[in-house]
Amino acid sequence: MTTAWMLAAALVVPAAADGAAAEGPELIVNGDFSAGTAPWWSTANSPLSVVDGRLCADVPAGTANAWDAIVGQNDLALTAGEGYTLSYTATSTVPITIRTNVQVPVDPWTSELAVTQRVEETAVPVTQNFTAGADHDAAQLVFQIGGSAQALTFCLDDVSLVGGTTPPPYEPDTGSPVRVNQVGYLTDGPKSGTFVTEETTPQPWALNAADGTRVAGGNTVPAGVDSGSRQNTHTFGFSAVTMPGKGYTVTVAGKKSEPFEIGDDLYSSLRTDALAYFYHNRSGIEIDAGIVGEEYARPAGHVNASPNQGDNDVPCQPGVCDYRLDAAGGWYDAGDHGKYVVNGGISVAQLMSTFERTLYEENADAKPLGDGRLRLPEHGNATPDVLDEARWEMEWLMRMQVPAGEPLAGMAHHKLHDKAWTGLPTRPDRDPQPRELHPPTTAATLNLAATAAQCARLFQVYEANFADQCRKAARTAWTAAKAHPAIYADPADGTGGGAYPDDDVRDEFYWAAAELFLTTGEDGYRQEVLRSPLHGDTDAVFPRGGMAWGATAGLGALNLATVPNKLTADQLKTVRTTVTEAADGYATDSAEAAYGLPYAPDGGHYVWGSNSQVANNMVVLGTAHDLTGKTVYRDAVLRGLDYLLGRNPLNLSYVTGYGERDSHNQHHRFWANQLDPALPNPAPGSLAGGPNDGIEDPVAQAKLKGCAPSMCYIDDIESWATNEVTINWNAPLAWVASYVDDLGSGKTVKPLCEVTYNSTRWSGGFTTQVVVKNTGTKVISPWKLDWTFADRQQLSAPWGADVEQSGPVVTAKALSWNTTLPVGGTVRFGFNGQSTGLVYDPRVFRLNDQPCATTPPR
Ligand code: 9MR
Questions:
Q1: Residue 5 domain flag
Q2: Which residue owns the Cα nearest ligand 1 atom 12?
Q3: Does some domain include residue 281?
């Protein structure tokens, strides 16, 4: 009888049969653990950590089978007939018999190597030779270490698997050399693309409609070698084409682009999806299938239900404090389950600013961000949904504040995360690691001061008690930061979570002072703003490479430039000039780049999360457009979006679910479909970190060595340095999506109305006169004017119109005698009212749902 074993043995080639070691490339990534635990994984019951340069797993007592606890590595490519040598050393605090397999990673787990071995406290080097019987794209090496009655620690060192032939160097599949925004172009916006070729002379291009009809054409413009990608490029443009349609393509020299749309409403779902990212990544709450669908639903994470050790009662790292905090809630930072005040800050600020923009920018529409509009549970509470989402994080940020009476009271702990890194995948509710608070820092404290101040002014008209809580936390944090201005995070504190170190907090001081000044109007904070060495220094406030979690001054400057405040006209001009000067720089970068992106980092280095730097520069450009109306700024935002959505060296949309060729294997512990088909891919609207020439992870190091900066990216779940998702990358994406959706078709339309709003104020009250003018070409009848108070104003006793207020929302309707607003005609009405705190005249009015110009302009 021929057994399977004999068949396998018959296939063994001499090299392995006689026990000779195989030669060939190394297949194991990070076999000496110098890069931490990844891409090694383990079963959730046996968390991994690197101890003295070895990979150790804490295995619980009482598992039944060897395979009940596993340490492994995936993605091993083997070739049939080739010889391989596996070697490693192993130790165990309790003697066990382990099973070591090289196998198919799914049922029936067919193995190429399956051996057992006794492992004890003393390390013994082990070598196993074998010959692969079949080809495998992605086999796995597993050490099955369960089955012991006693708990034990199993450690590995120097793991190596060599053999086969050297795989060809990694070549990204870049598809067509014709690169376009794979979602589309606004009907009346700029439209350009990039062609990659060795040719140096102009090439004919054609724009074709979905049915193949030629719509436009011309010759490409040679643009030389693009420094980011080292590709020889040409550009082409078709802005003049304004016929909406789906399925357009551009063909150059016989090569066809991915299809795209021309239209007016391309980005409303991007806004909603980009914002849904935050609900998906909430900690401490069940993610509801009714809101996100079955695939993305999951139980609440880190709520003290086993095996979670919970965030409701978190101790400090040893020696850091002797109290515990209820720090449940907030958002997970990224692919990991850490929660970081530095980074939570910029993210929640940008969500709040996405909303705040709608209070002061005439062309911004608050409705799509309003109550009942986003994918989250807090519908029907009258608070705009985007603020509900921000509140989820703000509550957590305030929980991270050191309680009164404790040392460093009022400061904020820098972060809270697992004691040791968990493997991929790990659903949040299945994370068994102890959670720990890390020391308070000045940077974290100022992140809290800044965001809590912004929270106080935005929530005052919706949830006054919560706003007061925010205001108090902001003031306390500011005072604590002033008392402890130089307590920095340890850059080496990166076990189990990211370090987020920052030892220059001048920008955080500027940001926090700006927010506190905007919210309170107090002169002390104004002086702090004006005294800052950053004030008015464009390059310091807006670094060339963009704002970031460690470079936050720009957040303050953008709000000083746009939110009504008590700066003098000259002081305001200084701030606005920093915004427009920075935007001029980014716009020039964009106009000069072969790929149109508004990002030209120092030394040409694409940093970790470069896509968010592109997005942050787009926020500055969008704000400059809001302030000045200049289309050069708007066009640079739109070209930045083109880059993120496919017009780039890899021909890839970095936003999941958008474009024909999208990133969808980003690094995430729950959205880990690439490792476990039962888990989902990242939710639509998730922005990948993007090219990073630092290539700090093993997959990037194995595949991307020598890469051109803007091509240092791989859509692999284990490449966390190029392909993670995080809150601080999706936050500017949400701002940008909102801004772009508000552009409509992109046509600059003259408003059909003009509102002059004049209040005479005295302490606690006001009398207001409103003049509405029909500046369009059609009679408006009946008319209805809406606005939202940003501050605490309650009107009464109206005249000249039927005026009603519900919360901060005011609607003024025509009376029977002034129903009609003729062309060029005006209507006047007014009211008295009461106010508390700082109040400013509203600036955003809609007449029958259409935006009006406001006089005087800002
Ligand atoms: O975004 C962070 C990037 O600027 C740093 O260079 C990098 C290394 O320290 O860390 C990034 O932040 C990660 C954090 O440390 C842990 N959670 C995931 C974040 C995104 O990769």
A1: no
A2: 498
A3: yes
Same domain, 684 and 804: no
Query: pTM score > 0.90 for this model?
Result: no
Task: Give the domain-ending residue among 713, 742, 771.
Answer: 742
Count of beta carbons in the 10 Å neighbourhood of residue 797: 10
Q: Whose CA is nearest to atom 4 of ligand 1?
A: 608
Same domain, 109 and 224: no
User: Which of 608, 693, 695, 696 for a ligand 1 pocket mutation test, highest count of atoms within 8 Å of Cβ?
Assistant: 608
* Residues 6+ positions from 46 with CB-CB distance below 8 Å: 57, 58, 59, 60, 69, 70, 71, 145, 154
Q: Is 418 a catalytic residue?
A: no
Report the relative pairing of strands 765-774 and 753-762 from DSSP bridges: antiparallel
Q: Which atom of ligand 1 is nearest to the CA of 724?
A: 21
Q: Give the domain CATH number at 698.
A: 1.50.10.10
What confidence score (pLDDT) does residue 198 get? 98
- 724 noted as active-site residue: yes
Q: Which atom of ligand 1 is nearest to the CA of 550?
A: 4
* Mean pLDDT, residues 647-663 taken together: 98
Give the domain CATH number at 65: 2.60.120.260
pLDDT-derived band at 169, boundaries 50, 70, 90: confident
d(CA 444, ligand 1 centre) in Å? 15
Given a contact cutoff of 8 angstroms between Cβ atoms, the answer to whether 509 and 532 are in contact is yes
Residue 198, domain CATH: 2.60.40.10
pLDDT greater than 60 at residue 449: yes
pLDDT tens digit sequence for 722-739? 999 999 999 999 999 999
Q: Output the residue whose Cα is nearest ligand 1's atom 13.
A: 498
Would 747 be classed as within a structural domain?
A: no
197-256: pLDDT as tens digits: 999 999 999 999 999 999 999 999 999 999 999 999 999 999 999 999 999 999 999 999
**What is the residue type of 587?**
A
Give the position, in ligand 1's atom list, of the atom nearest the Cα of 335: 18
List 361, 715, 741, 841, catalytic entry: 715
Collapse the DSSP code of 55 into the 3-class scheme (helix H, G, I; strand E, B; otherwise coil) and give the result. Answer: strand
User: Do 507 and 643 reside in the same domain of the chain?
Assistant: yes
Classify burial at 46, counting beta carbons within 10 Å of its beta carbon; exposed 0-12, middle 13-18, buried 19 or more: buried
User: What's the total number of domains in the chain?
Assistant: 4
Q: Are 191 and 185 in contact (CB under 8 A)?
A: yes
Nearest atom in ligand 1 to the alpha carbon of residue 548 is 4
Q: Which domain holds residue 524?
A: 268-742
Q: Is 667 a catalytic residue?
A: yes
Options 418, 724, 741, 841, the catalytic residue: 724
Domain end residue (candidates: 121, 137, 163): 163
* Residue 336 is among the residues annotated as catalytic for this protein: yes
pLDDT of res. 19: 58
Instruction: Give nearest CA residue, ligand 1 atom 14.
Output: 498
Same domain, 156 and 184: no
Q: Are 216 and 238 in contact (CB under 8 A)?
A: yes
